[in-house]
Structure formats: C-alpha cells, structure tokens
Amino acid sequence: AIERTFSIIKPDATKRNLTGKIVAKFEDAGLRIVASKRIRMSKEQAEGFYAVHSERPFFGELVEFMMSEPVVVQVLEGENAIAKNREVMGATNPAEAAEGTIRKEFALSIGENSVHGSDAPETAAEEIKFFFADEEIVG
Ligand code: CMP
C-alpha cells in the first residue's frame, strides 16, 4: 500500500552538507518527498518528539544534539514507505548498518546517526502531525 512516513535529517548530517546526498538515497529508493522544511528544533520540540525516550540515560544528550544544528523534517511517500525508509537508513548503530545504507555511509555514531525514520504506521501518523499541518503536505 502507499504509505507516508516521517523523516528527520539530523544535525550531524546538515552540518556536513549531506542533505542532498541523503534526499537522493530516498528518491532513488522510490520515496517521494511530499513535505520538507529546514528548522532549528526548540527544546520543547526535541523533548516532545522524543518523549518516549525520556527515561533513557541518553535523553539529555539526544535533546541537546537535536537542537545543536538545523534539521530537515520531511514526509516521505511511497509503496511500503515505512519499511522502505528503514531499509534505506540501515541499523540505528552505524557499526551494524548494511552496505549502501545512509547510516553505513554517513553516520558517525549511534547518537549522531544522520537520520530518523518512523518505525510503524501509528508513530508515522503521530510524528507527521507533530511537525506538519495538512496543507504543508503536497502529494
Ligand atoms: P532515532 O531513530 O532518532 O530515535 C531515538 C534516538 O536515540 C536514536 O535514533 C539514536 O540516535 C538515539 N540513541 C539510541 N541509543 C543511543 C545511545 N546509546 N546513545 C545516544 N543516543 C542513542
């Protein structure tokens, strides 16, 4: 089925001027960028977006990192977009990411791992709503 998923190009990637190379990986995989904006995350946004991780030992570090440089938030659309995006991203830990994936090629560490992608249809819907109004998504 045609799905939508939510993506973030993270600070380590925008800082190294990798936005276009990452977008090319999405598009080459057949994902369409139907919404996109470059923002600087506020503390409220970073803490709210990652609220599910608030009890984790790395939470403070994660929030600071996501606020440290601009990010690019996007909605990706396509056949099985959620799984396809996860495949293109590779494993969370770049040391475990498969050849050719974004994290294998670009990520620096488990925290500075270049991209975020939704993990399921419910989280995709929530995450898209967190950053985008309906009229900002143009399919
Ligand atoms: P993301 O998909 O954005 O969702 C939660 C993030 O927490 C994850 O990617 C990682 O970047 C980050 N993360 C997970 N484990 C660790 C860790 N051990 N140390 C720092 N950051 C982590």
From TrEMBL:
Compartmental location: Cytoplasm
EC number: 2.7.4.6
InterPro entries according to UniProt: NDK-like_dom (IPR034907), NDK-like_dom_sf (IPR036850), Nucleoside_diP_kinase (IPR001564), Nucleoside_diP_kinase_AS (IPR023005)
HAMAP family xref list: NDP_kinase (MF_00451)
Family according to the record: Belongs to the NDK family.
GO molecular function: ATP binding; metal ion binding; nucleoside diphosphate kinase activity
Residue intervals passing through the bilayer: none
Superkingdom of origin: Bacteria
Job description of the protein: Major role in the synthesis of nucleoside triphosphates other than ATP. The ATP gamma phosphate is transferred to the NDP beta phosphate via a ping-pong mechanism, using a phosphorylated active-site intermediate.
GO BP, sorted A to Z: CTP biosynthetic process; GTP biosynthetic process; UTP biosynthetic process
Annotated binding of ATP, by residue: 10, 58, 86, 92, 103, 113
Catalytic activity: a 2'-deoxyribonucleoside 5'-diphosphate + ATP = a 2'-deoxyribonucleoside 5'-triphosphate + ADP; a ribonucleoside 5'-diphosphate + ATP = a ribonucleoside 5'-triphosphate + ADP
Domain Nucleoside diphosphate kinase-like: 2-139
Keywords tagged on the record: ATP-binding, Cytoplasm, Kinase, Magnesium, Metal-binding, Nucleotide metabolism, Nucleotide-binding, Phosphoprotein, Transferase
Name of the protein in its database record: Nucleoside diphosphate kinase
Major enzyme class: transferase
